Amino acid sequence: MAALIYTSGSTGFPKGVMMTHQSMVFTSWSLIEYLRLTEKDRMILLSPLAFDYGLYQLLMAVTIGGSLIVEQSFIFQSTIYKQIEKYKPTVFPGVPTIYAMLIAANKKSNLKFDCIEKVTNTAAALPAEFIPDLKKIFPNALIFKMYGLTECKRVCYLEPELVDLKPASVGKAIPGTEVFLLSPEGKPVAANEKGILHIRGPMSC
Known about the structure:
Blueprint: E1 3-6, E2 16-19, H1 21-35, E3 42-45, H2 52-64, E4 67-70, H3 77-87, E5 91-94, H4 96-109, E6 118-121, H5 131-137, E7 142-147, E8 156-158, E9 172-173, E10 178-182, E11 196-200
């Protein structure tokens, strides 16, 4: 075991997830691959390091030799905007709540962050209606819609080139893994039918 990360309880009672060294190393490299990260990237950290999303920003920055701009929280938005202008991050990792706040602020002050090249999302699914506004705020950025669980860190991602064609989709399995839906009886479900999500790969505990 390499780490014990506590869930928020969105999929049941809050619990500690035992993360192995193998799963964390694999997941870091899988994220780096599909997010197209390089040593030139500068990530701004707005999530707590106790949150798996925040922790992996640190792990990825260390792995690729990139930079991490650490902020305490997103409460003081004007301060964050000044820090973005000052340090010019290239990667903006957020959750839907943060993006909702950005969109609301943009309607009042016309925000635009040209330095951001990649926008990523986790926790709850990024609402499709957010996409047009995010494109205005981050005009030069690729928008990565993602879905994950603390137990696996990340499950799916949508290629940013498809965000306009499939704005409600959570995409496909991350590199090196499989994702599929099965019925309660363990049989594959047909297209457009509900099923139980199954994830198979080195990142699962």
